[in-house]
Amino acid sequence: MCTLINCLGYGPHIRQARGDAYRKRDRLFNARGTGILTQITTESKAEGLSGTYESDRDKLFVVEGIMC
Q1: 37 domain-assigned
Q2: Which residue in 49, 51, 65, 68 could disulfide with 44, CB within 3.0 to 4.6 Å?
Q3: How many domains does the chain have?
Q4: What is the pLDDT of residue 1?
Q5: Does residue 1 lie in a domain region?
Q6: What is the pTM for the complete model shown?
Q7: Among 53, 67, 50, residue whose Cα is nearest residue 9
Q8: Block means of pLDDT (10 residues each) for the chain, length 68 residues?
Q9: Domain range spanning residue 59?
């Protein structure tokens, strides 16, 4: 039996897996880089509420040596 939320891909275990995948992607991006730019997935993407091609891209880029 599948609840509607789980069938639509928004159940807690699916959201957790999606958020984990975004964090892993950030770690891989940051490991490949020069260390000057750090990528952090934020908002609904970080919470696993939206898929890769849904909505906008929620990313924060931190540039070393820049103070706002």
Answers
A1: yes
A2: 49
A3: 1
A4: 61
A5: no
A6: 0.78
A7: 50
A8: 79 91 94 91 88 82 88
A9: 8-63
